[in-house]
Amino acid sequence: MNCLMKRRLIVGERIMYANGAMPVNCVFAVTLEGRLQQERIEAAFARLLVKHPLLRAAIREDEPQRPYFEIAATAPKAAVEVLPRQGNEDWMQVAMAQWQQPFDYRQAPLMRVCWLKGETVSDLVIVLPHCICDGGTIVNLMRELLAGIAGQDQPAGSYLSFSFVSELVAQQQLPGKGALLKARLLSGVAGGVLSLLTRNKTVATGRQHYMVRWSVDRELSQQLISACKAAGTSVQAALGTAFLQAFGTVLGAQAKNKLICPVDIRKAVPGIKEDMMFAFAPVVELRGAGKAAGTSVQAALGTAFLQAFGTVLGAQAKNKLICPVDIRKAVPGIKEDMMFAFAPVVELRGAGKAAGAFWEEARRMKQELQQKVGKLKPNQLLVLTEYFHPAADKMLKHLRSTPGSHDVTLSNMGKINIPVAYNGFMLKRVYSPSTALPWKNPNTLVVTSFEGQFDFSFISEETFLPAERAAMIRDVFMTLLQNNVVPVALAHE
Q1: Cys staple from 387: which of 183, 338, 394, 486, with CB 3.0 to 4.6 Å?
Q2: Condensation domain location, by residue (predicted)?
């Protein structure tokens, strides 16, 4: 291979690489109306391979078993898998099959394109390893792919991947010597603690992942946004609250009343360009005790989802959400179309049995989310986490052998910014991206908004949470949303 450059995987990429032992794939699908041509899809795919260096990468391991990217100077052949489209749900079967289809990390490309071909309606499904992309990356790749198929003019050329994360951070925002020393010490402590926590524990082996999907019509979607504004909260907090409550109902005492939220750091890190592929996502944890004023749409969604979990799972629900956080705005160097896969997360806890009203809890959750995201310092986090490579394998085992202290990871990706009209075809439907995590706790809710309509994908694994109970959580969640959103929205029309 004509090698352009080599660089080691950063810690976040290493975790999602999972030592190459199991697939951890991101999948994104859309439905198109119009007549497509295979050669145009392949040509658009080929342009992506030229532009984004990580798509041309293979992953090798050196002597200490430290994985690194080996990026080719030239792009491999862009081959599109063509499948017959026989119904509107075919894409889901393809997506779930692609979760389990491993990439050959020894050779590029690290991206697959599946075309479910119909006469006038088709589906496009793109698949990437999670170790090279986050939600923002896969959406941008779909946007560029559709533009290429339509023959739209796009900037030519490529960009260079970074060699060290410090290149992405402005000099004045680099951590000081004290912080670096502390990171070294904490890495050693973390390794010891994780060894104790995972001793004699078996890793998750279940691969019966499933996806429960649903969408909210445009009227209720707009009512949710209006109600969140009127109540002073966010959509994510409202969703998280309702979902944790639904978990509590189903799981009972087993519910943990916590959610975890990944954080998009692109806007906080100048070196991560808008179109750069990147895959590091820190998290924040949100809890539910206490009361506070003020809330948002994200808070409202989180509230609703927590309540739904509590309703369905009862004592088994943990009443916690984990939410990824987009740091791109905090890191100006991460451009919108740059492949990037680091997303910090925040953990949010739902209210206990003495919880207040739905909107009161959503306001409290919004405030907690804002406080935790504000404390992240993504530029320093990017650099300091690199000192935890010695503990990376233990971190991975911990994820695969312990259920965590949260109920669900809530990834609110917000509005999907992809045009609808193209030369020769129209974008008919956008489905929330999905990933089947091989962790002990794979519960993940992905929320998107497109053309004024919310869309949900809840992914889990049968031996951890049976699909039947997941469907119950969805139903309780939607009941909580409707019962709390509609009256507030109508009162403020």
Answers
A1: 183
A2: 28-245
